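Input sequence (182 aa), recorded before submission:
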Amino acid sequence: MKLSIIGKAKLEDDFIRLQFPRRGGDNWYKTNAGIGIWNTQQKEPVTTGLFEPFLERPQNSFWLFRGYLVVVDQAERTMQPEELKVHVKHFIFRKEDKFSKMKKEVERFERFEKLQPIYREQIPEDIRMYVWRRDNGKCVQCGSNRLLEFDHVIPVSEGGSSTERNLQLLCSVCNKKKSNKI
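Predicted structure, token format:
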């Protein structure tokens, strides 16, 4: 079974209008379906013979749900309308969820682009050498000499500076445990 969104629907003058691509452009078609079907399709998928005359398909091929016109191709003949209804709901909810996630991701990218780059001043070479010698090239907490990092005792985010009094050597494990705590 294959489901596809082939058009959209909108309520206009108490009648449902359908829009789906046709050769020569998109057109809106007025149906005889009224506000009752529109209100129902907001909560439950609706299938109706109103759509078949437009597209010459068998019954239960077209479903209207949440403003989307969905076509069901190659459905098993034994499948009951209730089963099809669940498939249509699942299909639309997944599409809406995917769209919602994509929209949030785009918003995050747009916010990220608006952020001003944060430049962090580099620790001067003479201060790094002083701290290295003072701490004997080892982590001041566990004594490891692997994967060493210069750590600000008072984090830069809290107003700490890059002076020898505010710097220490930590291995990456100890530095991650400390995070930006004082």
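Checked by second reader. The first strand starts at residue 2 and ends at 12.
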